[in-house]
Specification:
Length: 157
């Protein structure tokens, strides 16, 4: 029998994989964009997001296991999926449109959704909320960083 954590993990990996389609010109555009001087942690960002996605998947697993298959649980699973899709869309959509403003909007949307998701799962599992805290902390930092890049790159608004 396939375990729920396997399905949640497979969906997360599938969505992440679908969001990784960037062309060379997209990457060149993003690499030439000026960064704030204080952005010294850029190399750590992939590790940060890996931890956040693992925590998010674990959070979804706890919610599922609390009441497997109920209508509320399915609604919350869709909420987790929407949050991941929004999060994964940040880089490819921003780079395809070559718009840091779009990146800022997507980042802010992800942050807002993470807080709403945490409020929604609170009655189901406190630990599921705790596992969303890394996202809720990082999202405003990432969104602010992208906003700061808009200020440094007015031609890439």
């Amino acid at each position: 029998m396939i375990k729920s954590w396997m399905i949640i993990g497979a969906i997360a990996i599938l969505v992440a994989g679908l969001g990784s389609a960037l062309t060379g010109s997209d990457i060149r555009w993003f690499n030439r964009v000026q960064r704030p001087q204080w952005l010294t942690f850029e190399r750590a960002i992939p590790i940060i997001w890996t931890v956040i996605f693992i925590c998010g998947g674990w959070s979804a697993y706890l919610v599922w296991e609390a009441d497997p298959g109920s209508q509320l649980t399915w609604v919350l699973m869709v909420f987790y999926l929407v949050l991941e899709i929004v999060t994964i869309s940040y880089t490819p959509v921003m780079c395809k449109l070559r718009s840091l403003t779009v990146g800022t909007i997507i980042g802010g949307t992800g942050g807002l959704l993470s807080y709403l998701l945490a409020l929604s799962v609170w009655p189901v599992s406190t630990w599921a909320v705790v596992l969303l805290i890394p996202y809720m902390i990082w999202s405003p930092i990432g969104t602010y960083t992208t906003w700061a890049m808009v200020q440094l790159n007015p031609e890439d608004r």
